[in-house]
From TrEMBL:
Source superkingdom: Bacteria
Protein name: Alpha-1,4 glucan phosphorylase
Residue positions where N6-(pyridoxal phosphate)lysine is found in the record: 644
GO annotations of cellular component type: cytoplasm
GO molecular function ontology, one term from the record: glycogen phosphorylase activity
EC number: 2.4.1.1
Keyword Transferase attributed: yes
Record bears the keyword Lipid metabolism: no
Key words, A-Z: Allosteric enzyme, Carbohydrate metabolism, Glycosyltransferase, Pyridoxal phosphate, Transferase
Amino acid sequence: MEKATLQELLESRLKDIFSIEIAEASPQELFLALANVVKSCYANDWSQTRKNLLVEQQKQAYYFSIEFLPGKLLKSNLLNLGLLDTAEELFEELSFSLDEVAEVEKDMALGNGGLGRLASCFMDSLASLGLPGNGNGIRYNYGLFKQKFVDGHQVELPDDWLRAGNVWEVRKESKAVDIQYGGEVYLIEDENGRLRPERHGGYVWRAVPYDTGMVGYQNDMINTLRLWSVEVPAAEEANYATIESRRSLEDLTAVLYPDDSNERGKKTRLMQEYFFVSAGIQSIVRYYLKLNHPLTMMSEKIAIHINDTHPALCVSELMRLLLDDHDLPWEQAWAITVKVMSYTNHTIMAEALEKWPIDLFKEVIPRNYQIIEEIDRRYLEEYAEVHEAALLNRTRIIINGQVHMAHLAIIGSHSVNGVAKLHSDLLKSVVLHDFYLIFPERFNNKTNGIAQRRWMQLANQPLSKVLDTTIGKSWRHNPQDLQLLKNYQEDPTVLQRLADAKLTNKQALAEYIQQTTGIEVDPTAIFDVQIKRLHAYKRQLLNVMHILKLYFDLKDEPQAPIHPRVFIFGAKAAPSYHYAKAIIKVINEVANLINHDPTINDKLKVVFLENYNVTLAERIIPAADVSEQISLASKEASGTSNMKLMLNGAVTIATLDGANIEIRDAIGDENIAIFGLTEEEVYAYYAQQNYSAYAFYEEDPVLQRVVNAFIDGTIPNIEREGREVFDSLLKYNDEYFLLKDFKSYCDAQYRVDLAYKDQQRWQAISLMNIANAGKFSADYTVQNYADDIWQIEPLYAHVKEPNSASL
Ligand code: GL4
């Protein structure tokens, strides 16, 4: 599209909506008008994609996820439609900044962290590969809370993202479905001797879908992200006359649970899970019936993916529809279900493997509960002759009065995958070992990936331009072509250009830091970044301990040859996660102490940016020199910020955990700083039960000084939090082995410092990171899901060349 055409469209939208000229428009008005223009640019392709899918009857995947974390969509839609450069030029000509306009958009923050962001990266890749793949989730009125710091404490404010409306979504009233909750279900024999459920009591709520187009990268493919919102069914208006009754209904899709690995058995959460599952499955079956295909062949047209355990009810809900509404015999319904379903596990943290009390299940979803009981009974029966009773009793779905969601998902799926090689191996050998004995053929690995378009092309335009001029533009379609950069490892001109791009990004971040926190940071310092949810296992505290060590080194010797460093944190803690909130307070107070201490000559700065989200990540990641991936080995299933930071040329300091191992394998030991216990060593400690935090503390005076600092008044204002930290390390024997890993972490940090001082070497390492990051594009990950699990093919394969995505 020409610039002039875009301008005309924009002008006419501004007239239509606001009756104003461009010159009078505010950023808000420009945003809305431009977003509407963008929507109209893909409207035709969206309906065409749907029509073609129906005509071609191609198999489609449905990604069920209780979280999606897309961030802002304006620039990514412009990029994918091939309009970004045109829009930028136009806005410049009109003396506006596109960035300022884009900034108006509220982040769509319907997820906690990595899991939800992964779902959105997959949506981007599915469309960009031309693959028919749709998202199915919940349209929360309030996304993940907005984080503020008050006196260094985290305070949570509601994220009212819908207040000004959401320009991208389309309400599809005609596609609404009813969701049944509660009541009692009796099984009554019909004239053919078949048991039929008869429901007494209970209530029905309405699920209304809001669809958002997922725009493919310059390929005319528009998939759909369908998010469900609760409403009062028309026939029930009279029953919801009071404000209270309405409120309890509206609560259902009001808020996202702000906890990313620890479910707490809340009834509303279970109702949410059933809500989007039942709505999604009903709408899929309705669509499938339009194809006039026998139900027994459903797996030829439909693949349903269970993203973590939250949508595990997909199994029992599809069974319910096939049995109750379509009269299929149990065996047929079960065969269909297992072929259609697949499941991804995202964590080894035991507390995240959801379990629900059966009483709650019976109360909320009685028919699903009956079906789950029957699945469970048949499971025991079917495998009784092959496996020991003890094994079956450990893997059955209902154990000790609780429904085990992971068990339901595994038994009801044909594929179970982990999200990095190590994680998938641990699933087989430890976490889900019992299931591996029973269903070895179901287990596989799909290492996570990231949307290179958002995390490089959009977030890092300075670097993208250097890449274009150095290796050409093919990397934009085929991320593996970033490998071409390897040829320039010793080219001083290219290394300098990379360094310049990084400096530009660091200057921009320094300005943002100045504006939002008042802290002055020097862009020539090392920007050392740890951005992720606050969790004990991710060990933000280990980072703090190293910072304190450097601080004491500088206090002892102000001229110590340490290259200046800015430690940047971004992290939200679940509101109920007391210990994580204590760590936030400690980091903020350490920052206060160090940033205001004139004796260390500004050599260290600590910056904790508020409200870490996708948009803030897009600011921080391009400016990072060092990427902190320091979880205790075996605990981080994969991680994805590790991939984003690597792609942007940050050098990783890491334990051999999650996808860090694959990053190390891709770039070689010389281009990453590895430290700490390995997963085997961690498990050896568990087996021998001989870890003694106190022993490490006692033998290392440096460590002693650092740990004591939490309680000896060195850091003001942390009497309570400092004590909690101190106790977690010594009194409770340091669950995540920080004291053991401290020394090796500090050594690795020292190597990082040395490497940075040799700028030529540093830039070459950074270059190797960028050059080898293509492998971690979600395009390849999604292609693997498509080939191995979903068996779906590109829609326009016969019309257009798909983006090349084979390794
Ligand atoms: C997570 C893992 O903790 C994280 O390592 C992984 O990268 C992500 C996506 O697979 O899933 N699991 C949960 S729960 N939250 C996550 O972010």
